[in-house]
């Protein structure tokens, strides 16, 4: 199976895939020159089927892996680019990105490890951990009812994982600061609203991350009371970010935001700020538009500052640099 394929596509999905390819050619010419659709066709044609099988197996037991993988890819790509630097385990005297700040709660590494082990058994030293993350995330999105799309591959793994590089936007960041953070990565306001909303259409947040929202008198009263009750429990419990369809990648979270039911401050503020309110409204009204833009934004994010050619390496173990550092 082509590594860009996860399953048979409908005619609507094929039109989306074609438009994604054309968009990628137009918007990311430098990345296109480096990444390729079907990169592993000649060298490891089972890449796609192996990763899809691993992700499907985990998803059948735990639907929350979609949120976990989306967060993993975002946290990796927004630091030093999509280079799997987040996957490196810390060692005594040598911390890594994985052990720093918000990354400490990233999960799903066992999925990447399992896919890597199976790929190394049939195609040793060929498929990068960075590409496994990108393909696994794409497959998990489709399994959760989100769009199916092709992504170009050929990423290589980075040789650096420094906690000092980690500076990720948090849940209480103002919209203007979030716009600046995305712009620094070459992404626009539409990309930001798409990726934040889409990423928060699944998954949970700990009460400590949205306590400020509970003090907001504008928050939907029923939801506020429900969340206050949830958060009375010990050990910082969690609540679904999308109260309507918490395991489905869709546009429901944007409708929730319009009804003052955004869980995180950044989500709710996107529905209030003049620079983002219109995009939130468009997505709330049109799930097809959201699906198309989310696929486009994921392809764009997955191409941030990638290593290709002879840069970096192809790790044998995603948690350790090949030289053992």
UniProtKB/TrEMBL annotation:
GO terms for biological process: hydrogen peroxide catabolic process; response to oxidative stress. Ca(2+) 1 binds at residues 76, 79, 81, 83, 85, 97. It catalyses: 2 a phenolic donor + H2O2 = 2 a phenolic radical donor + 2 H2O. Keywords: Calcium, Disulfide bond, Heme, Hydrogen peroxide, Iron, Metal-binding, Oxidoreductase, Peroxidase, Secreted, Signal. Heme b binds at residue 200. Substrate binds at residue 169. The record marks 71 as: Transition state stabilizer. One of its GO terms (molecular function) is metal ion binding. Its EC number is 1.11.1.7. Ca(2+) 2 binds at residues 242, 245, 250. Belongs to the peroxidase family. Classical plant (class III) peroxidase subfamily. Removal of H(2)O(2), oxidation of toxic reductants, biosynthesis and degradation of lignin, suberization, auxin catabolism, response to environmental stresses such as wounding, pathogen attack and oxidative stress. These functions might be dependent on each isozyme/isoform in each plant tissue. This is Peroxidase.
């Amino acid at each position: 199976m082509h590594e860009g394929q996860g399953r048979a596509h409908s005619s609507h999905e094929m039109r989306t895939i074609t438009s994604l390819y054309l968009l990628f050619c137009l918007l990311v010419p430098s990345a296109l020159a480096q990444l390729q659709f079907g990169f592993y066709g000649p060298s490891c044609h089972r890449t796609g089927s192996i990763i899809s099988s691993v992700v499907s197996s985990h998803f059948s037991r735990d639907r929350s892996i979609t949120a976990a993988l989306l967060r993993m890819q975002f946290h990796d790509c927004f630091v030093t680019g999509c280079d799997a630097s987040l996957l490196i385990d810390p060692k005594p005297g040598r911390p890594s990105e994985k052990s720093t700040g918000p990354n400490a709660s990233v999960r799903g590494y066992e999925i990447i490890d399992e896919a890597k082990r199976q790929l190394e058994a049939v195609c040793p030293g060929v498929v990068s951990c960075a590409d496994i993350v990108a393909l696994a995330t794409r497959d998990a999105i489709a399994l959760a009812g989100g769009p199916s799309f092709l992504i170009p591959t050929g990423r290589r793994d980075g040789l650096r994982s420094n906690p000092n590089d980690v500076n990720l936007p948090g849940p209480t960041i103002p919209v203007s600061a979030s716009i600046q953070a995305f712009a620094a990565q070459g992404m626009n306001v539409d990309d930001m609203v798409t990726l934040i909303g889409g990423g928060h259409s699944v998954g949970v947040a700990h009460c400590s991350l949205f306590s400020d929202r509970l003090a907001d008198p504008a928050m939907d009263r029923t939801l506020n009371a429900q969340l206050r009750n949830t958060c009375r429990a010990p050990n910082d419990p969690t609540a679904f970010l999308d109260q309507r369809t918490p395991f489905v990648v869709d546009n429901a979270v944007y409708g929730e935001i319009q009804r003052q039911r955004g869980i995180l401050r950044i989500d709710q503020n996107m529905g209030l700020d003049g620079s983002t309110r219109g995009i939130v409204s468009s997505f709330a009204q049109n799930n097809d538009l959201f699906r198309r833009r989310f696929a486009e934004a994921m392809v764009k994010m997955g191409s941030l500052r990638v290593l290709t050619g002879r840069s970096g390496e192809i790790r044998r173990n995603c948690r350790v640099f090949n030289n053992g550092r």
